[in-house]
UniProtKB/TrEMBL annotation:
Keyword field contains Nucleotide-binding: no
Active site: 109, 233, 263
GO cellular component annotations of the record: cytoplasm
Family recorded in the similarity comment: Belongs to the thiolase-like superfamily. FabH family.
Native species: Actinomarinicola tropica
Compartments reported by the entry: Cytoplasm
EC category: transferase
All copies of domain Beta-ketoacyl-[acyl-carrier-protein] synthase III N-terminal, residue ranges: 103-180
Listed GO biological process terms: fatty acid biosynthetic process
The protein, known as: Beta-ketoacyl-[acyl-carrier-protein] synthase III
Domain Beta-ketoacyl-[acyl-carrier-protein] synthase III C-terminal: start-end pairs: 217-306
Amino acid sequence: MRGAQIKGWGSALPEKVVTNKDLESTLDTNDEWIVERTGIRERRIGGSTSGLAIEASRLAMARAGWEPETVDLLILATTSPDQQIPASASTVQNELGLTCGAFDLNAACSGFVYALVAAHGFVQTGLSRILVIGSDTLSRLTDWEDRGTAILFADGAGAAAVEAVDGPGELLGYDLGSDGSARHILDADIGGYMHMDGKEVFRRAVRVMVASGNAALERAGLTIDDIDHVVPHQANIRIIESACKKLGVPVEKAVTVLDRTGNTSAASIPLALVDGVDSGRIQPGDTILFVGFGAGMTWASAVVRWQP
């Protein structure tokens, strides 16, 4: 049997910090209101999708001990590429000195989990080393005069070096889904800003996170009691708390960074993962439930046994 494990990880955030206090000068809002409704205290703004992806990837490759010529594939999950053509993955591949195939994957905020599951599938076809990246610069798609979105979105990147191993590997179960009829609740036309129906996003997000998380657990042959950590999409603390409650897991098991990062779309789950691992909270042998949702509407969950 041939499986895969994450052997290296890395993250990248822009230097510029925008606090809730900073937003008070341009928006009809205040720090207390934002924290109460979102859990966000500050966010990072700046850089390019490819630049942040490169920085995170170098850290992941170094930790895994990979040389550029040994990488078989690069998957960049992003909803904010640097340009329409070519794919930002090509820029990242070139700057990292890779010679392998590379492509963008757009599943919005669910993108990293989609890419992680895809990487495990590619391992089954014979590939051995796959670089999985979630990188977004949503500040470029944000109307900074729109209180409903300006307080939420930010920039960042996270990367994972996924390597083939003998045996079943780390991916125990997963669930992927999409519902195009919900396109209207969060969208952005080419060249335009994001528009969001916050109440509808909240309602649908909790529902699909719970259903998807349970589906992944069932596929893994586990229950929520077997989970040591939940690493959710970092969109809104109220969504995370509500989803955890309905899943039947203590919110204390949720690994969160959104108070410092805001909503970084495809980068949010790997940013939380890296923080959990580097802080020592996530330990080898722990079982993790990744659960995300995003525009589309998309959703994705994966149950992983952490064995770096």
